[in-house]
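Lecture notes, part 5. Sequence design as translation. It can be helpful to think of inverse folding as translation between two languages: the language of shapes and the language of residues. The source text, in structure tokens, appears below.
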């Protein structure tokens, strides 16, 4: 089963995970979700596979997070609304996300990628 890595190539952790996968000889596809956005349905599926709430996938240090005042709202926003915001503003999505079959993980720190191999 092929692994898919959702990432931002300029992200340090994403580059580390990419290197681990290459050095391990893993067959994988890399998706830069800033160029090819993750559709809402796919993001919902990834969140379900990671067994987490969308609010735990938010990047809270991003400028857009502050601009949208999500610190004040995130616990009150519906899951669907948070996912819509992440699709609209990909900077809000923690990265990298690795998906293989019916499992997905947030590979932060990079060494966590080994859990899905």
């Amino acid at each position: 089963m092929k692994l898919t890595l959702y990432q931002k190539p300029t992200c340090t952790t994403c580059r580390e995970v990419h290197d681990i996968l290459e050095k391990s000889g893993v067959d994988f596809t890399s998706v830069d979700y800033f160029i090819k956005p993750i559709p809402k349905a796919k993001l919902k599926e990834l969140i379900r596979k990671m067994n987490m709430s969308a609010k735990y996938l938010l990047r809270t240090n991003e400028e857009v997070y502050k601009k949208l005042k999500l610190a004040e709202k995130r616990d009150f926003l519906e899951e669907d609304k948070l996912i819509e915001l992440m699709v609209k503003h990909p900077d809000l999505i923690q990265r990298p996300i690795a998906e293989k079959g019916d499992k997905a993980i947030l590979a932060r720190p990079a060494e966590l990628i080994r859990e899905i191999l």
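The translated text above is only one of many valid answers, since several sequences can fold into similar shapes. Strands lie at 3-7, 28-32, 97-100, 103-106.
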